[in-house]
Amino acid sequence: MVILKFHNDPDIANVDSSENESVPSKGTILRTKTGYVSSTMGEPCVSCTTFNILAPIYKRLDQQQNQSVRESDFKAFWLARNERIVDWLLYERSSIICLQEFWVGNEELVHMYEERLGGAGYDTFKLARTNNRGDGLLTAIHKEYFRVLNHRELLFNDFGDRVAQLLHVQSVVPFSQNWNDSVEQEILIVNTHLLFPHDSSLSIVRLHQVYQILQYLETYQEENKLSQMPVILCGDWNGSKRGHVYKFLRSQGFVSSYDIAHEYTDSDADAHKWVSHRNHRGNICGVDFIWLHNPNKSQKPLKISWAEAAFGIIKYQLQKASLAENDAFSFLRADNNGNYITYSAFCKALRQVNLTGLSHGLSFQEIKDLWVQADIDGNGVLDYEEFKRIWNSTWSEHMDEDCTLEDSDNSIEDEAIGLAVKNAVLFPREVEKGIWPENYSLSDHARLTAVFSPVRLQCSRQSL
């Protein structure tokens, strides 16, 4: 679930330490004495919440005995829990709400959400996963805060039957009255739920899902000749900070709002300081993110980042097979007597580590693209130096950006309005310490809320 909301009072109320599952008491992060917060520049802030609400068809009622008993078999259970979820949403009165694992296959539940949210001033958009999986996404827009300029559906049509929603929204109230007279700020928002990594070979599917989202965002902005605007990616990413998806998004200039707010780095030491999900295996992990990308023409080309990420997965699969650098080169070289890797041997090795030859593996074109980028001199083979470049490829921890925060009194030639992370909180609060509370039953995910304030950006016309 994603929530964007405008605020305009500077004093955020104290946050309750407990997570009530009935209608919440006063004092959650989205409520203050007046119901609003503001940035230091006097502009309205944006708050964003992501929350997987756990579809009743997946919620197990008996973890110990019969795992086939699901909440969907008991109307009183699933209806009561979802009513409590809607109570929270209506209490918080957020401007944009995006739900993951929304039970689109149950007409009564869908009607309840649409009726209650519609009665509170929301327009709703739902999107089912492909192949009648039963669940999907729902996005609701509060007409008092945002107007929807466009709504697009992205169907991956892949092994996981996953989908994504793109919302192009514009503020109803001018977002930046102090700059250029009056600006109705526009934001691109993506709501999605990536494939669960049941097997390490599925990493390439998850990576490809994110690649498709970023490609679609690029194409959408180019085709519609849009000016620069912030992009927020929210949802259940089914992967932690140590995973390939996280590193891929970081290489594209996205930042994790929660980690920015708490000054956590990308290091392994900070990777497990918070959790947001207890999965069906009983493991707790941090998988729910609110990613922010500010207007910036200076970023690594998407195709380059994709290749680095894909090579990272290849390296991981080879290391999983206990192959060090020299052994991996020999493995990829196969039976070739020369000190180089041929394309056919490269393809054969990828099949052996389950990255091709399966319905969810790399496509023929993707393999060709990777080969072209790896074969630097274009002579049709990879020598050891070219292989080492792949093996030792590292992620860009910090992208070189030509956009900098500026004082609002300065005149800027190429200006854009972005978002700065002001705060971020997880509910229930125990998960911020890496603990999953046993008495929490609203979902198997925690709710993540981030607050953003508008900032003025100076963007260079020069690109990498």
Automatic annotation (TrEMBL):
- Keywords assigned by UniProt? Calcium
State the InterPro entries in the record. Answer: CCR4/nocturin_mRNA_transcr (IPR050410), EF-hand-dom_pair (IPR011992), EF_Hand_1_Ca_BS (IPR018247), EF_hand_dom (IPR002048), Endo/exonu/phosph_ase_sf (IPR036691), Endo/exonuclease/phosphatase (IPR005135)
- Read off the SUPFAM superfamilies from this record: DNase I-like, EF-hand
Organism domain of life: Eukaryota
SMART domains linked: EFh
Gene Ontology molecular functions: calcium ion binding; catalytic activity
Q: Where is the EF-hand domain?
A: 362-397
- Name the UniProt record assigns to this protein: Uncharacterized calcium-binding protein At1g02270 isoform X2
Species classification: Eukaryota, Viridiplantae, Streptophyta, Embryophyta, Tracheophyta
Gene of this entry: LOC18613863
